[in-house]
Design brief:
With 197 residues, the protein is mostly helical. The chain has 11 helices and 2 strands; from the N terminus they run H-H-H-H-H-H-H-H-H-H-E-E-H. Strand 1 and strand 2 form a beta hairpin.
Length: 197
């Protein structure tokens, strides 16, 4: 595979063959993503990450794959969810779901198992944006108290500096957590803004 890619010249591909070749490459990518997802929990179980100085298995997976820790954690979480969802795993193994779709669908089915057939049917043909929209609608329709507890359990906050040396902050939580944060954050922004001008 490495030799094929190293020597591949896309300009030698006939224009009429390019779409089919792209779809073939996408299928290869999907199967490779499936293998990675299936192996992720085994990597965690192997415990090498502990012996190589990584704080979590996700950190090792991210280092090995050249991705973010958040992406590696989502891969690990999705794999564990699919282990409890035979239909989702089967569709993923068959190449019918891309990794982003598998992640969305597995998360929703974990919360609302009764929508599995409908969501999987949609995910096999619809664009990611449409699947995400339906997943959000499905999660919102779940019991409000359960939804609140789920969001609270999954709350997170992270900050980082990107390649352009710009600082970013991203947080997810309940609406009341957000309100409490904004009450503290907005006065600080106002203060810095006044100082800057």
């Amino acid at each position: 595979m490495r030799e094929l890619v190293a020597e591949f010249d896309p300009h030698t591909v006939a224009l009429c063959e390019a779409p089919d070749m792209f779809r073939t490459a996408d299928r290869v990518e999907r199967f490779a993503a499936c293998l990675k997802a299936l192996l992720a929990p085994r990597v965690e179980e192997a415990g090498l990450w502990k012996r190589t100085g990584h704080r979590t298995a996700a950190k090792q997976l991210a280092a090995d794959a050249g991705t973010s820790v958040a992406a590696a954690q989502r891969l690990l979480d999705t794999s564990k969810r699919m282990a409890e969802q035979p239909e989702t795993e089967q569709a993923f193994r068959a190449g019918e779901l891309s990794m982003p779709k598998a992640e969305l669908v597995a998360g929703a089915i974990e919360i609302a198992p009764d929508v599995a057939e409908r969501l999987l049917g949609l995910a096999k043909t619809a664009p990611v944006a449409k699947v995400r929209e339906e997943v959000l609608r499905t999660k919102a329709a779940v019991n409000a108290d359960e939804n609140y507890q789920r969001i609270r359990k999954e709350r997170s906050a992270r900050h980082y500096t990107d390649a352009d040396n710009a600082w970013h902050f991203h947080a997810t939580g309940t609406v009341d957590d957000g309100a409490a944060f904004v009450n503290v954050f907005e006065p600080l922004v106002d203060q810095f803004f006044k100082q800057a001008h």
